[in-house]
Amino acid sequence: MGRVVGIREVCAGLVLGALGQAGVAAAEPAPHEVQWVHAAPGPVRSFEVLISPVKGPSDQVRVVEVGKPAGTSAGAFQNFSAMVSMESDEFVAIRAVGRNGMVGALSAWGGVTPTRPGQPRVVAPAD
Fold it and tell me: What is the pTM of this model?
């Protein structure tokens, strides 16, 4: 599918891929699998995916709580994934919410073409 790039304080990156959406036009909501890694998930209660029509915070950001999915170990990190509905031209970031309610640092915002490590990466579905 793709690979996770870069490492952030809270989340080490995202990989997004549309599942079974081969005929969906651009800018239509479609289910996407979000994959991320986290260095210390023990104190995490849940994760939130932030979706924005622009790169960065805006008054139109949607926050999707995806809970704390079952993860798989990858060395010192743990891999997680969840499904979210988003448009192909939107930007995403992810953050952790601790058991104490504290919100962790936000990952970098990214769109279809990441420009630096740590940004979310959108991977086109295989034809």
Answer: 0.68
